[in-house]
Design goal:
Helix 2 packs antiparallel against helix 3 and helix 8 runs antiparallel to helix 9. The chain has a five-stranded mixed beta sheet with strand order 2-4-5-7-6, with helices on one face. A two-stranded antiparallel ribbon has the order 1-3. By secondary structure, the chain is an alpha+beta fold.
Length: about 450
């Protein structure tokens, strides 16, 4: 139930970019607060040393650090729940406002304990002001900034008005003299206010520009995605429309070739056979285009996958590839090196698509009379299946591009003209869907090894 709830929450929040950004900032604020909590506790320990000021607020610092840590655990739980429940921007801002109020109350206590005017501790009001500008509108952030300044400056104002007892961090009468001079107190508060408001203004200007640019980029990205989807739909529609007539043409071609419409001269039979081979290549490319499109639009709902034992499935895939390799004299073998059965969570159709493409590539790019080895073994974190050929290999400069659509290395195009350039992209999409990883290692002239890692494999 928790896993299902988590999946639903992630899907929901991904659909709202602004919501996701606020949740990321909420988590970032939680991480920042851990630093303040640890800093307060370290300051409490340092205040016990002989070199510390006479009236070090050890107790205030320790209690503040503990309270910040405890509150942060609560805030962390709220942030995670907000991510799972797809909290709206209004709720996220309320959560952050709760954190802000708690932080500035804690800072006010530390300011009072640290002697307020005797130290620059009040300037710690700035970090959260930067965060406020990321969460709220310009007016809202200004109101929160002014309220924060009021909370942080309250101890000094109350001490100056003799409402709070004066707490001096250092021995002597320095603080009493400072508090007695309204110009000093007023200047200190004015300098703090001016600094914070200038910082607020600069950050809001930068933030507004960043948000505006982010929205423009998001809008442009959505437009590109819509155009890409429209292009994909058009391509798939066109390929569907081409497949039926091409299949009919192919059928008529072989009807002519096999003499059902009457005998053909040898030259005509050769031309008809060549047309048939071209039709088969086109049909294969159309099938790959449709298959890749279907894989990209595939949505896993929880019921399509089952536990599949790899050994018998791979043995069948190897037999099918061996039949296909007979025409080129390529031998395909299967070897199980695992100590016991290995089980993966997938659909049999996906496994067949993945390994049939890898084996087909290995056969097509092997030299005539070559060998292809399909091997199953237990890896460090699950099952590993490798497909090794001893054919033409992949040049180093092409190795990083072979998973791109329609890309074919020069030596591959020269060796085998029937490739569509979609085999490895299909392999990549299937691996993504079933949670596997595909790695390629190759040396030109020595062959290629494709290794599929199944980290979630089970079995004894």
């Amino acid at each position: 139930m928790d896993a299902k709830r988590q999946d639903e929450g992630i899907i929901c929040c991904v659909q709202d970019v602004h919501c996701r950004e606020l949740i990321d900032r909420l988590h970032w604020a939680v991480r920042l607060r851990w630093g303040f909590a640890v800093g307060a506790l370290l300051a409490a320990l340092l205040s016990l040393s002989p070199a510390a000021p006479t009236n070090s607020p050890t107790g205030i610092l320790f209690v503040t650090g503990v309270l910040l840590a405890a509150a942060n655990l609560f805030y962390q739980r709220l942030a995670r729940r907000s991510a799972l429940d797809c909290a709206g921007t209004r709720e996220l801002r309320r959560i952050f406002l709760l954190q802000i109020v708690g932080d500035y109350l804690a800072l006010a206590a530390v300011v009072y304990g640290m002697g307020s005017i005797e130290t620059p501790i009040m300037f710690l009001v700035l970090p959260n002001i930067f965060l406020v500008t990321l969460f709220y509108t310009r007016r809202q952030s200004l109101a929160i900034t002014l309220a924060a300044l009021g909370m942080v400056m309250a101890p000094l104002a109350l001490e100056s008005a003799a409402i709070l007892p004066t707490r001096a961090l250092f021995a002597g009468k320095v603080k009493a003299e400072l508090l007695a001079d309204p110009l000093v107190v007023g200047g200190h508060l004015l300098m703090l206010t001016a600094t914070v408001l200038v910082c607020w203004y600069l950050v809001t200007v930068i933030t507004q520009r960043l948000i505006r640019n982010e929205l423009e980029l998001e809008h442009s990205y959505e437009q590109l995605m819509r155009l890409d989807e429209a292009k994909t739909r058009a391509v798939v529609r066109a390929t569907h429309e081409l497949k039926a007539p091409l299949a009919a043409i192919n059928s008529y071609v072989y009807t002519l070739r096999d003499g059902y419409a009457g005998p053909l001269p040898d030259k005509a039979r050769e031309i008809v056979a060549r047309i048939g081979r071209r039709c088969e290549r086109l049909l294969s490319k159309i099938t790959d285009i449709i298959r890749l499109s279907n894989l990209r639009s595939y949505v896993y709902t929880g019921g399509q996958y089952s536990d599949i034992e790899l050994e018998p499935a791979l043995a069948q895939f190897a037999r099918e590839a061996a039949d296909a390799g007979l025409a080129r004299g390529v031998e395909v073998s299967f070897r199980d090196e695992s100590p016991g059965p290995l089980v993966v969570r997938a659909s049999r159709q996906h496994l067949h698509t993945l390994f049939s493409n890898l084996l087909e590539n290995a056969v097509n790019y092997s030299d005539e009379g070559g060998t292809v080895e399909l091997t199953l073994r237990r890896g460090a974190d699950g099952a590993e299946v490798s497909v090794r050929d001893h054919g033409i290999g992949i040049p180093p400069e092409a190795l990083a591009q072979v998973f791109e659509e329609y890309y074919r290395a020069q030596n591959a195009a020269a060796h085998y003209q029937g490739g569509s350039g979609l085999g490895l992209p299909i392999v990549r999409e299937v691996a993504r869907l079933i949670g596997a990883r595909v790695a390629l290692a190759s040396e030109p002239g020595a062959g290629t090894v494709a290794t599929v890692h199944f980290p979630s494999a089970g079995g004894g």
